[in-house]
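Internal tracking record. Fields below are filled automatically when a chain is submitted to the structure queue. Please do not edit lines marked as system-generated. If the sequence contains nonstandard residues, flag them in the REMARKS field before resubmitting.
Queue: standard
Priority: normal
Entity type: single polypeptide chain
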Amino acid sequence: MSGDPIVRIAARGDGVSASGQHVAFAVPGDVIEDGELIEGGGHQPPPCRHFPTCGGCQLQHLTDAAYADYCTSRIVGALAQHGLTTTLRAPHLSPPRTRRRASLKAQRAGGRVLIGFNAAASHNIVDMLECHVLAPDLFALVAPLRKLLATMLPLKRGGEVQLTLADQGVDVALKGVEVVGLDAVEALTAFCERHRLARLTIDEGYGPEPRFEPGPVTVTLSGTPVGLPSGAFLQATADGEAALVGAVREALGEAQRPLDLFAGLGTFALALGGQVSAAEAARDAMLALKVAAPMVRAEHRDLYRRPYDVAELAAFDAVVLDPPRSGAIEQIKQLVASGVPRIAYVSCNPATFARDAELLVAGGYKLDWVQPVGQFRWSTHVELAASFVR
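SYSTEM-GENERATED OUTPUT FOLLOWS
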């Protein structure tokens, strides 16, 4: 093939040619000839009017097949930098309009209220008139929230709208607003009742404060309703969560004494059999898990400052890791020195996963397989679950 072929998509969404050129909206199969981009396969018409301005999606111009290839290539590339290869399974892609949590920006601009994601590489807000990633119940609140915030958002100061789909409805958290006077309080209550919110939390600069919560707010994880603290971590889609849970259960096999580290609300602990133990640094999440599932031996513990050591790990026959983006290098060092035979590693950052995987493999583990998961549809954010055995 003549010209300069596009060979991969970079972490920020640009196509990269064989000569190293970065080209916006290019995909593998395209070619640069005489300075012009000649499109091959892999393109689709972007479904949303806000693309590519909105920073919520960077890859709507990719077909599903091309997007799946991108998810795989991100992981392959990260592993290759550490001299690793393994079996890469077909990526699991969450369908459009299934995102059950989102953090949106809000701002009063003259007589208007803007709500949406920031524009790419900008603090400007793209006012969300349609969205192909949010669950319909979340997007349905965007227009009513514009009216509500018209009198509560101070001029020239940004606010934040966090939306989470709970068992009882939508959990809304507003930050950077001012609720002054009886009329404003009554307007909040009327809004919550009209839209049947599960909860409304307000942060006027002094921390979050529940203003409407007619009953306990829960999220069901593997059949168990767990109290949902405001702002708690939750997998982005129920569909993606199910894919990750399935991969973890497969990786752990018939383990009878599993340990779930960075356990959150118990997404994986509640899906495992045997005598399950769990550890999490967020106190409110750990308390919610203890109340919902007393049979799980749950511990409030900062695993960065106090990872499980070799002696403690001897009590377990499998470990689940689901760390933040920075990875779990201190815990990995202890696992390498332990005798734990099975590890399921869930990651939202292929780069730190590959770094940690290199240490595990050097310590005697085999990286058996990796399951890519694209929960953040059309974004450059790639998640995975991996199986390590020895």
